[in-house]
Amino acid sequence: MLQEHARIVDFIATAEGVTGRKKLQKMVYIMKKLNVPFKEKYEFHIYGPYSEELTARIEELCDMGFLSEALEDKGSYVQYKYAVTDEGMEFRNAVAASIPKNPEAAALLNAKSARFLELASTLLYFGHLERGEQISKLHSVKGKLNFTEAEIEEAYRFLDELEQLKLS
Amino acid sequence: MSYATQKLAEEKVFKDPVHRYIHVRDQVIWDLVNSKEFQRLRRIKQLGTSYLVFHGAEHSRFNHSLGVYEIVRRISDDVFHGRPEWDESERLTVLCAALLHDLGHGPFSHSFEKVFNVDHEEFTRAILTGDTEVNSILRKVSADFPAHVAEVIAKTYSNKQVVSLISSQIDADRMDYLQRDAYYTGVSYGHFDMERILRVMRPLDDQVVIKSSGMHAVEDYIMSRYQMYWQVYFHPVARSAEVILRKILQRAKELSESGYEFQQPPTHFLAFFDRSFTLADYLALDEGVLMTYFQLWINERDPILADLCDRFVNRRLFQYVDFDPGTDYKKLGELSALFKKAGIDPEYYLIDDSTSDLPYDFYRPGEEEERLPIQLLMPNGDIKELSRLSQIVDAISGKRRTDYKLYFPAELLIDGKKKAIKQQILEMLREGGI
Question: Are A1 and B352 a contacting pair at CB < 8 A?
Fold first, then answer.
């Protein structure tokens, strides 16, 4: 029961908090694509793969008191910072004990910017295509972001690195 | 004349209770409607299990898909036609995408996808680009046309105006299903002035905006969406049926994997149990097929599968109580242990369900959101987000409201043996223990 909620709490606790809704969305998407059994359904939206179910679940977890959501004013924009509360840690210990932890992957993802994760998750979204087509689709849907060849190469390297971790 | 621009000798019309008439002039659209993959949508209900609550809600994804097509046809041929910001060459692409946007839905789609970990959008793409009648029709337009239609539906198409008409916060899909679901459920909310909204829609840069003079019609649409969300889509009794449906599929899978010998083998499901399914396996399923299995499985030897099927077919649904997971999750463990002591498997008979488990959403404006909000075009050319100008929308959108229910079979807790334990369970469920 409440296993899917527990999986999200567990992930945010493992990542030691996540700043940015977009970043959290992409982190979970990339983990899911690398075989971590998150159940949230994703579709393509403005910033790439996005899950309305994940948004709703995060709202529920805040409502339950297991996650805290703090608004950070960054001047020209605002960001939401998510952390697991004491009650959330108690819930995690009670319900998520058997969920495999992936601390290395969580840390690697959390160290990257939202822009970079948007790039990596978009490439993964087009994973059914050949690499050349993936890049061409990336430029077609993300033309305004002007991703450079170096950034794209780095994204592929990053995804390979994550894949080596054999997540579960 | 090329196939892409070929017209029927006479316009075909479908009578429709929501839009009155649905008009088809294009040969391509007519051929698509007559393809077997599109006809299959007649056998998949738009609202899944809601017919067990609202008896009129038997309408299909076929009706809805034609409705979405008709709305987009009116926007493309009437409202946007001749406007310099609109690319007329996209007309057939957007009409086909509107008609085919739900093509990959399966029987009782939401539950089926959850249990078997499949995604109807991937099936939509597979039908459009694979070896199907729909694909052969689209390929007659051009070799890359099936891929373009698939990209519009997947929201990865380069022309964002085209994507917005099919999928955005105020799109043809939502405008049709809100009105259609209201009509067939018989509820009095869900209605809004679509004619007015269509008249004030404008293509602009990468999106479709609404002239600010149409704000009140959009407010009405947002209110309808809000009301339908809570009164129809999240109806707790329909969710009870959905819970039972999910558990039937889960039980059949578990029995099959454990080597149980079915009296009525789950032939149509086997490829989904071991994930070896093909597109043909998926297209062979519809709600008639599933209901036939459920009928037959009422007589299975496994008491859980038989009971769950009987409940679904004969509408003996689970009862429910509200619960607060934030404080009650520990008691769920206790309750689960008591169910086991009472000889009732909690995996199948004690189920939590929350709003995030459901496939509908409501309007969320604001910062750092991933979905483009509804934008109003002001008389001076400025663009403003709807909730910044509308107090009504600001009051009801983006506000958190969650709903958690715990489902259980009340009558199993009243009859039979182990009465003391069952009494304890009922007290926990009904007297504020949970």
Answer: yes
